[in-house]
Amino acid sequence: MEHKFRCNCPITVAIDVIGDKWALVIVKQMLTEGKKTFKDFIESDEAIATNILSSRLKMLEEFKIITKDKLPDNKKTNIYTLTEKGVDLMPIIAELSLWSDKHIREFHPELYSGETLQIIKNDKEGFINKKIEDYKLENWK
């Protein structure tokens, strides 16, 4: 499939791929919450509509950010796995967490401020590396 981009700016092109309301949420759910199936995503707190989820999963697959396979013991269920491209988004997800905490908390005081955020604040690189390592061990067998 041929993809149309607005321009040749690397930031704009990246936003064309992962900058919509849902793409990074899906990647975040895969990396940090262990989501793998359509049902996993639908049951999440973010409440993504099924048609939007289908569209975003297809787009992420087209850009080789995720792969889709069948579960070995259930050929009816698709399982989604991040590729190296997808895993490489972990630093962006960590940075967005820090940015949101610093700049959006005043508008959303109930914003998550638990242990994971504190770990990111105290050792961002260690957190990123651990999440990537854990994901690869769990999913790239």
Structure, described:
The chain is mostly helical and 141 residues long. The protein has one domain: Arc Repressor Mutant, subunit A (Orthogonal Bundle). Helix content is 57%, strand content 11%. The chain contains 8 helices and 2 strands, in the order ααααββαααα. A two-stranded antiparallel sheet has the order 1-2. α6 packs across α8. The longest helix is centred in the last third of the chain and has 16 residues, at 124-139. The two termini are 29 Å apart. Residues 9-108 form the HTH hxlR-type domain. One of its GO terms (molecular function) is DNA binding.
Quick recap of the structure?
With 141 residues, the protein is mainly alpha-helical. 57% of the residues lie in helices and 11% in strands. A two-stranded antiparallel sheet has the order 1-2.
Helix-strand blueprint:
Layout (H helix, E strand, L loop, with lengths): L9 H9 L4 H11 L4 H5 L7 H13 L3 E6 L2 E9 L1 H4 L2 H14 L11 H8 L1 H16 L2
Antiparallel strand pairs: 1-2
Helix pairs in contact: 6-8, 7-8
* CATH homologous superfamily grouping: Winged helix-like DNA-binding domain superfamily/Winged helix DNA-binding domain
Strand content: 5-15%
Low-pLDDT ranges: none
Distance between the termini: 29 Å
Give, in order, the helices and strands. Answer: HHHHEEHHHH
Order of strands, main sheet, comes to 1-2
Architecture, according to CATH? Orthogonal Bundle
SS content category: mainly alpha
How would you describe the oligomerization state of the chains in this entry? single chain
Number of domains: 1
The major sheet is characterized as: 2 strands, antiparallel
Shape: globular
Query: What's the number of extended β-strand segments?
Result: 2
Count of separate DSSP helical elements? 8
Helix content: 55-70%
